[in-house]
Amino acid sequence: MTNVLSIVSYPFLPAKMGGQKGIALFYKYFGQKVNLTCAGVKENNQQFAENYTLVKLFGKSGLRYINLFYFFPLRKIIKENKIEWLLLEHPYYGWLALLLKYFCKVKLIAKSHNIEALRFKSVGKWWWGILWHYERLVFKNADLAFFITEEDRRFAMDNYKLSYKKCFVITYGTERAAAPDEGAIKTARETIKQLYQLNDEKIFLFNGTLSYPPNLDAVKVITSIINETLLGSKTFKYKIIICGKGLPAAINNLEAYTGKNIIYAGFVEDIDVYFKAADVFLNPVIEGGGIKTKLVEALGQNLNVVTTQSGAIGVPQETTGNKMKIIKDGDWAAFAATLLTGFEPQQTSFAFFEHFYWGNIAGKAEVILEADEKESSKPI
What we know:
- This protein is α/β, with parallel strands linked by helices.
- The protein folds into two domains: about 5-175 and about 355-375, Glycogen Phosphorylase B (Rossmann fold, 3-Layer(aba) Sandwich); about 180-350, Glycogen Phosphorylase B (Rossmann fold, 3-Layer(aba) Sandwich).
- The protein has 13 helices and 13 strands.
- It has a seven-stranded parallel β-sheet with strand order 3-2-1-4-5-6-7, with helices on both faces. A six-stranded parallel β-sheet has the order 10-9-8-11-12-13, with helices on both faces.
- Helix 1 crosses helix 13 (about 360-375), helix 7 packs across helix 9 (about 270-275) and helix 8 (about 215-230) packs across helix 11.
- The model has no long low-confidence stretch (mean pLDDT about 95).
């Protein structure tokens, strides 16, 4: 098996948010295909590392990003484990990965969760241009580049001038290989109905880390625009459940919307129950970049989705059929009207799970490494 060392510069175990799950679940399945060692921060909880070896190396101080001395323990890991590939999550430790690549004679995979520079530009960070040049440098010097969406892959090829031969889409996924059965959906729905004392209302769901500006903006759109439109239909029965932690104290007044069909559930331990119980997932996100992980999770649980165009990036419509309805960014009247219209009964398709099942995603990554190794071994 191929020997791989990954570098993750922030806590991701236990995985609760989308970005953390994107690493933990990929490693869970990728670790079945290769011999995987992960160098991570000391805050990670070892018991959640499945199918790979976790080395708790980096401290919690922000100075860890410029600590040259991490080179030496990483070099030792590379030598002792006969590492062939170095997998870098995000570009921040790019300088360290490049040092290891050239001094330890390993190949480098730069793995992107989104184009970081554009993400920070979208939320108004002045230094995004500096990050753009640094990110470009890391990707240009990597042997392979993994992007989470086709859109990101094309952006990098066009703007970072990367060869298409080294750029691949390794997307976010779901652990489900098929939609949940009707019994599981019915049980989940009864659980949520009892918990919030619901009857025959339609259940609309939004979930996300609410301290993240794009998600917070989406909540504001739901409460102040979409919900106000729905309230205008006097005969339409519904509830909107909003899940997620980190709601800023300055606007922590979602409880005030209780009489307006809004339920603020806060952070919930098992979001899958909510996905199964809901009728429609709301995704009015128009910023942030990358794939919206909650969209993949919702579709994997057989949930219908109404989303903006920006929010649907990375989820090919040919894999979703009529389960996902895409609305032009900012057209909130059409968004609300689609909720009032409803969906025809339909299961999430086989094509969706073929594309987004983590086992298939990890298998694709394995094949890419094997193909590169075979190409490199050919006589010149």
